[in-house]
Amino acid sequence: MGPIRNIRDVAEKHLCTGCGVCAYLEPQGIRMVDDLGQGRRPVVQDGAGQGDALAACPGKAMGLPPFDGSKGHLKELWRGWGPILELWEGYATDGEVRLAGSSGGAATALSIFALDQKRSSGVLHTVARGDVPYLNETTLSQTREQLMAASGSRYAPASPCDGLQKIEDSPGKCVFIGKPCDGAALKQAEGLRPALSSKIDVSIAIFCAGAPSTQGTLEMARQLGVPEPNHIESVRYRGNGWPGMAVVRGKDSAGQTVSGELTYADSWGRILQKFRPWRCYSCADHTGEFADISVGDPWYRDIPEGEPGRSLILVRTERGRDFLRAAMEVNALTLEKAAAHVLPDSQMNLLHTRGAVWGRNWACRLLGVAAPKYTGMGTGKTWLQDLTFKQRTQAFYGTFKRVFTKKLYKRRPVVPFDGEGCS
Ligand SMILES: Cc1cc2nc3c(=O)[nH]c(=O)nc-3n(C[C@H](O)[C@H](O)[C@H](O)COP(=O)(O)OP(=O)(O)OC[C@H]3O[C@@H](n4cnc5c(N)ncnc54)[C@H](O)[C@@H]3O)c2cc1C
Ligand code: SF4
Ligand code: SF4
Hints:
single chain; alpha/beta; binds flavin-adenine dinucleotide; binds iron/sulfur cluster
């Protein structure tokens, strides 16, 4: 397939994660669009996307420095999970935030804290579009109401880094929330843009096993009785409980108002996860290794009926540690220290994926298909030490099959989709 020379190569050769940082770094030549079967993807003018945009692109490459014992990171977690200084488990002290949140509302509670204390002037994150509610957009929230309206994970494409200029232009520091690939993009852009870096109060990454394309949302809506995209009035994927129900509201084929619900096991397990683009299968960082703080589900135990939600919180940097301490001082979160084993006990599937990625990416390279470059992330050792022989074989040979069934050997041009607003 040849080398990756520009952002169009990244997108067309199945490497794009959809973060949007290229559009922030080169707005004259690159714009983000929705591609129905893939996710948020860049449309690139001829000659654009070769400089900073390519250097910051997490789809092409990302890397961690070697483990340094003097920095205080937990050695036993470094290889499988990246830099971690502390682990906490808990929830937003404000019951409304806890209930609305996807897990325990930690991301929203930390954001409300930053605005309330006036340490941040905005929070850059993702919200459902008002005009086309099954698509997402990046927004800079400045009130509790705006943050609450965007709480709850959206298992659908989002490109929060396309809004980084809003942080650069803001009068004060800001909070950034995104998936792990968005956090990696931010970190790489911070290295290139000191003006951006000076405006980041904290970056928060939400754990992510893969972002389904918009086709996944439309299929879920269809199964819930709203077959026409322009009849979808709202889509919620999680939250309002833990993990909470997926809820689609809209009109059925007879024009009657319907509100359909699915459990998380059904929405994610039976429908959405099948629509993850290939790039999510070759992703090594599912827990936000480049963010200051990352948050996910403490799935290590059974969830009692009616449990309003709990979050697992990883502190990854000193900036993250200072921020969390300040939030705890004003009781924004109710937390207790968690032992290191809680992370693998909660998210073993993500560790297995990290190992499988090594085999998948080498299978791609052997067939001449582009694969992301990971340095210092221990994917090879994870492949050897944490996967069974059967899992290794499946990862390798499964990829050979997918290269042909998904036509990964061919360039796939980005197909913009504007969506149809609710009628
Ligand atoms: C695609 C996807 C895959 C996930 N996979 C996992 C997983 O494997 N393991 C796991 O533990 N949890 C997973 N989650 C859920 C999420 O990581 C946890 O619920 C996390 O603990 C956040 O919960 P919270 O209550 O702190 O967030 P909330 O307080 O509810 O806040 C969520 C924040 O995330 C932002 N956001 C929502 N959707 C997106 C999106 N698509 N892209 C970027 N930002 C978004 C919102 O703007 C909001 O600020 C996934 C979420 C998504 C969107
Ligand atoms: S991964 Fe991000 S920076 Fe790279 S091409 Fe995709 S949107 Fe652009
Ligand atoms: S699986 Fe990885 S590449 Fe895909 S959306 Fe999640 S963090 Fe990004």
